Amino acid sequence: MFRESARALCKRKRKRNEFKSGSVDMASVDKGKATKEQKYDRQLRLWGDHGQDALENAHVCLINASATGTEILKNLVLPGIGAFTIVDENKVRGEDVGNNFFLTKSSIGRNRAQAATELLQELNSDVSGNFVEESPDQLLDNDPDFFHRFSLVIAVHLPESTLLRLAAFVWGAGVPLLVCRTYGLIGYMRLVVKEHTVVESHPDNALEDLRLDHPFPELKKHIQSYDLENMEKRDHSHTPWIIVMAKYLEKWRSEHNKQMPKSYKEKEAFRELIRQGIRKNENGVPEDEENFDEAIKNVNTALNPTKISSGVEELLQDENSKNIKAQTSSFWLLVRALKEFVEKEGQGSLPVRGTIPDMIADSDKFIKLQNVYREKAKEDATAVSNHISALLQSVGRLPESVSEQEIRLFCKSSAFLRVVRCRSLAEEYSTETINKDEISSCMDNPDSEMVLYLMLRAVDKFYQQHGRYPGVYNYQVEEDIGKLKSCVNSFLQENGLAVNVKHDYIHEFCRYGAVEPHPVASFVGGSAAQEAIKIITHQFVPFNNTFIYNAMAQTSATFQL
Amino acid sequence: MADVEEPMAVDSGCRDTGDWEGRWNHVKKFLERAGPFTHPDFEPSTESLQFLLDTCKVLVIGAGGLGCELLKNLALSGFRQIHVIDMDTIDVSNLNRQFLFRPKDVGRPKADVAAEFVNNRIPGCNVVPHFKKIQDFDESFYRQFHIIVCGLDSIIARRWINGMLMSLLSYEDGVLDPSSIIPLLDGGTEGFKGNARVILPGMTACIDCTLELYPPQINFPMCTIASMPRLPEHCIEYVRILQWPKENPFGEGVVLDGDDPEHIQWVFQKSLERAAEFKITGVTYRLTQGVVKRIIPAVASTNAVIAATCATEVFKIASSAYIPLNNYLVFNDVDGLYTYTFEAERKENCSACSQVPQKLQFSSSAKLQEVLDYLTENASLQMKTPAITATVDGKNKTLYLQTVASIEERTRPNLSRTLKELGLAEGQELAVADVTTPQTVLFKLNFTS
Fold first, then answer.
1. How far apart, in whole angstroms, are the C-alpha atoms of residue A157 and residue A469?
2. Residue A400's pLDDT is what?
3. Does residue A145 sit at the B interface (CB-CB below 8 Å)?
4. Quick one: DSSP state of residue A106?
5. Which of A18-32, A35-49, A144-158, A317-331 has the lowest mean pLDDT?
6. What is the mean pLDDT of chain B?
7. Among partner residues B191, B228, B334, which is closest to A363 by beta-carbon distance?
8. Which positions 402-461 of A are in contact with B (Cβ < 8 Å)?
9. Is B223 one of the catalytic residues?
10. 3-state secondary structure A81-102
11. B-chain residues within 8 Å CB-CB of A100?
């Protein structure tokens, strides 16, 4: 029975170095491990070994092995997803082979799930591929629990009624759903997940956590140990800019009623103050002191007040952090512990991150300064850890259920925590809760990508009414334009949307004839696969919740519908 | 219809070129139907498909992360006359994204294996591989293509092909002959970031017009590496740059090979020792390899997105179906998905694509070294190893060339001579050759004093 084999395969793949057949001996395990680390090297540098483990323990379900579907899977199989299962009752047709890299002429007439599984499986022997020759409707009728075992369900090209049925089931079961489609030159993705937490968001341009506005006691003491005025020249030029800035900040604050330089003028004056500190030679010419140049350059950013961002503040005040229960996830337990830390040991601030950027300095001074921050970070993490232990005890759980490593990582990432919550498909599709405001305001520009979303909703309506998509055959195009226009109008009317959909888009969507050009399917394939990886690894931040790609104009947009 | 058993092994023998019903349904709609957003030049026709299948010649440069995706996308869009150039062989670390290759192919030329795979999987497709450098070909080779798409990992290579296409342009009475233009599509990726651009040589911004978009690679200062390491990376660079040449651990003159695990292991151990000396933590084998090989992280998904964007543009240009991207797209999916599309502008005095003669302004008592420094350090030129020649007293004289050891030695004294001493005159033309361009760049010398 399919169910058993899939679960068994999943369990086997849980151990990182096991092979599909034959006994496991240590020599080949080591060789296997080495090759996997070599093979996945370029991606391990992005999501780490723990991210890779999450990927290898995941089992995704793809519904419909159209070109879009197989392209998505390709980009999950290559990086080593644990297992995939394709659900598709369709038989391969000639046109399917024409745009799909994972179907060949010899697959024509065979079940599409089976045919695609073979060529996708062939991409990576670490991955376990399965197929089910049934329609999602059949599965929902006979075995709705089928979908509950997956880490993620990816639904491609489902008619609206089936999609809404499926969405309701997986929403209730807490299984993330990613809806994808390629329609002519338009790509579409919709993420449906109740709550997705991210500790490691890996922000692109994160500000440093230097605490220059409120130096903690150990940092203060360390700064005090420097006597800039009486240092030897070499030491003076190789003092970390953080120390330099801290010293001049002390001077400034003593002369300005303890205030930080805030306005542009004040910051300019502060820069000049630092500049005056550059040692001069016998002729009164300023020496070359790169560390002072660095201090001056960093005045803009390093003086930003140490503040918890509104995003993180919201999380600290979230219901989930307030009401801790026995089943509360590690994430919310950690948030609660973080909140208690902020209120107590942190005195309004998050745990010190513990990292500093590289800067001109001699090794000894830099390492010592770095260690001051590192030690403080450790101390803060321990405080958070104590809060966690108390919380776990209060709900009758073992203190080990949240590891030290998890706590340390959480503390280091505390300024960048993110939670993504998507509205359900039911909410999006109901005339009562459809996001009218978002749609109307976007459509102030009638060429906004939002019009493409409206067209997709309209062609689905067309399909419901006529049992087919518009303009598939040449002779249909002319007449279907009129029919599609009625669908557009009734959709807008039913949902109380007073927007104008230009005729050109209705014509264009009939022209498409619901085809799936490979390059557009491949764009969606790449985009969707990475969102899937984000969901599975809980690293980087998924989109929320609708993504539209326009291959005509080469533009895209994200809407929250 | 009887189905032929598809051979699983790669077989250069009998190949099925026959089409089957519905094969090109997903493509034909865009060629045979009129539409409201099509290019003004577009005319629906049932013959356009034949042009794509039989006549349109596309060159794909690079058979790596982007190249594999490009070949697949083009083949499934109806392009059959495709050439691919790649000078590399397959490595294990390619396999997480370069999906035309398998573990058994490691060591084989990428171009060959990619062509075999695609030709086998897509009946009728005729990918011709070239296991060569782009510099191994001349104008007569490049001239045969309708469109060129690049999936390169080197800025120098990009500039070279850019320069090559510029050299193919012909002007009649100062007017550009459109038939001499070969569109160049260029894609690049790095981790979760990527970009795709359309270049119409002589008409739109070229690679050199936007050189500042590629910030020069930052190397750590030598004093940091030699005496003041602070990061684990500094320790690794110390071993690579200073310790290895001194100790020659694998023999006299044996160069550090980033692909040799024994070499990396040695560097790793020595880096640990160096780090311990300065109480620096964080040296790992993975970091060591990353620093030595200047590894850029890469995944399948980003390459898929960028190659798809490029392939869509190839189709638009070849079929006139839509107005092409004008002209630059950036992509980033670290936080949600983000694209930004803009028109990169031509630089008025671009050294590669403008007709404006390049100027050099120096004092006559300036040393040749200063000119050399300018050519390499100037943000718009960023030359690598320029060779300078000039006509002095009616004779062609090589002032400095560093790529041939004997000539470098002979001409090195010129670097400390002044321009006047070298016999150069006001208004003199200097011809500069460099890896960044297939043609020499002419500079006019103006004396400031």
1. 12
2. 86
3. no
4. G
5. A18-32
6. 92
7. B228
8. none
9. yes
10. CCEEEEECCCECCHHHHHHCCC
11. 76
Please say if the pLDDT value at position B330 is more than 90: yes
Helix (H, G, I), strand (E, B) or coil at B278: coil
Residue B213 has a pLDDT of 79
How far are the Cα atoms of A279, A309, B176, B182, B345 from residue B203, in angstroms, in the given order? 53, 47, 9, 11, 10
Residues A320-330: tens digit of each pLDDT? 999 999 899 99
Question: Shortest CA distance to B354 belongs to which of B158, B187, B163?
Answer: B163
Cα–Cα dist B121/B15, whole Å: 10
- Closest CB to B20 among A40, A94, A527: A94
Which A residues in the span 238-257 are in contact with B, Cβ-Cβ below 8 Å? 238
The whole-number pLDDT of residue A86 equals: 98
Distance in Å, alpha carbon of B306 to nearest chain A alpha carbon: 8
Is the peptide bond between A500 and the residue preceding it cis, with omega within 30 degrees of 0? no
- Strands in B147-150's sheet, in edge-to-edge order, are B126-130, B81-85, B57-61, B147-150, B184-190, B193-199, B328-332, B338-342
Amino acid, single-letter form, for residue B157 = A
Q: Is A411 helix (H, G, I), strand (E, B) or coil?
A: helix
CA distance A468 to chain B (A): 16
Residue B416 DSSP class: G
Nearest-Cα residue of chain A relative to residue B44: A511
Instruction: Please write the tens of the pLDDT for every residue from A188-230.
Output: 999 999 999 999 999 998 999 999 999 999 999 999 999 999 9
Reported ipTM: 0.93
Taking only Cα atoms into account, the Rg of chain B, rounded to an integer number of angstroms, comes to 25
Cross-strand bridge partners of residue B95: none
For the whole model, what pTM was predicted?
Answer: 0.92
**What is the pLDDT averaged over residues A409-417?**
98
**Minimal Cβ distance to A367: which of B26, B278, B299:** B278
Confidence of residue A5 (pLDDT cuts 50, 70, 90): very low
For A246-296, give the DSSP string.
Answer: HHHHHHHHHHTTTPPP-SHHHHHHHHHHHHHTS-B-TTSPBP--HHHHHHH
pLDDT for the residue A205 = 87
Structure-token pair, residue A479: 């007449």
Mutate to test the interface with A, among B320, B333, B342 (most CBs of A within 10 A): B333
How close does chain A come to B249, measured CA to CA in Å? 24
| Inter-CA distances, A141 with A6, A132, A169, B80, Å | 20, 15, 11, 45
How far apart CA A116 and CA A99 sit, in angstroms, is: 13
The Cα A42–Cα A315 span in angstroms is 33
Nearest CA distance, B128 vs chain A (angstrom): 19
Backbone φ, ψ for residue B50 (5° rounding): -65, -40
Residues A515, B96: C-beta atoms closer than 8 Å: no
Write out chain A residues lying below 8 Å of B33, CB-based: 474, 477, 511, 513
Is 80 exceeded by the pLDDT of residue A373?
yes
Cβ of A234: how many Cβ atoms within 10 Å?
Answer: 9
**CB pair distance less than 8 Å for A98 and B24:** yes
Instruction: Using the predicted structure, report yes or no on whether residue B14 has a pLDDT greater than 70.
Output: no
Mean pLDDT of chain A: 93
List, for residues B80-124, the tens digit of each pLDDT value.
999 999 999 999 999 999 999 999 999 999 999 999 999 999 999
For chain A, what's the residue count? 561
Question: 3-state class of B104 per DSSP?
Answer: helix
pLDDT average, residue stretch A91-116: 97
3-state secondary structure of A553: coil
List the single best residue of B19, B26, B28, B264 to mutate versus A (max A Cβ within 10 A): B26
Structure tokens at A106: 């010899």
pLDDT score of A443 more than 90: yes
